[in-house]
Amino acid sequence: MNLRAQSIPEQRETLAALCKASGDELRLNVLRALANDSFGVLELAQIFDVGQSGMSHHLKVLAQAELVATRREGNAIFYRRALPDSLRLGGRLHAALLEEVDGLTLPPDVQARIAQVQQRRAVTSQDFFLRVEEKFRAQQDLIAGLPQYRESLLALLDKL
After folding, report:
1. Radius of gyration of the CA atoms of the chain, in A
2. pLDDT, tens only, 139-160
3. Which pairs count as long-range contacts for 112-117, CB under 8 Å and 24+ apart, including other chains?
């Protein structure tokens, strides 16, 4: 976004949203937790021991300040930290905020709940692959085996 294209009130609103979002301890801790992973609303609510609607409100404030970004997986929306853009209004403030946030240490109970969420994800993933293993092996026979395309592959590699 070009700074000159924004009116003075829009610039003030942008900076105010950034300051508002960073003016809450829970939101700062959420940004810290999102430093190395992305989480859904329910996961973050569990991690920080708050209600889902309360966590949704905090994430909305962070999103309005463009401090978090989202990605959709099916019906779930996952939140991650947005990368700062020093060319945008507030971009340097955004970068400085994340640098300071990264110096924070999350409370031990929050760290333990993050580990629980990650462990539950691992178990869910293993369960999924155990359930589809037999289907995968059955369909693997439908895939061409190396003897069927070996010569073509070697010829292509020789050309390269």
Report:
1. 23
2. 776 777 778 888 888 999 999 8
3. 113/46, 113/47, 113/48, 113/49, 114/33, 114/37, 114/47, 116/46, 117/39, 117/43, 117/46, 117/47
What domains can you pick out in the chain, each with its CATH number? 3-106 (1.10.10.10), 107-160 (no CATH)
What are 68-112's pLDDT values in tens digits?
A: 999 999 888 999 999 998 888 888 999 999 999 999 999 999 999
Where helices occur in 1-145 by DSSP H, the ranges are 8-21, 25-33, 41-47, 52-64, 91-101, 108-140
Angle CA 33–31–53, to nearest 5: 90
Under 8 Å between Cβ of 21 and 65: yes
* Residue written as token pair 């905090």: 58
d(CA 58, CA 150): 55
Distance CA 8, CA 3 (A): 9
3-state DSSP call for residue 128?
helix
Check: CB of residue 61 under 8 Å from CB of residue 16. no
d(CA 136, CA 101): 44
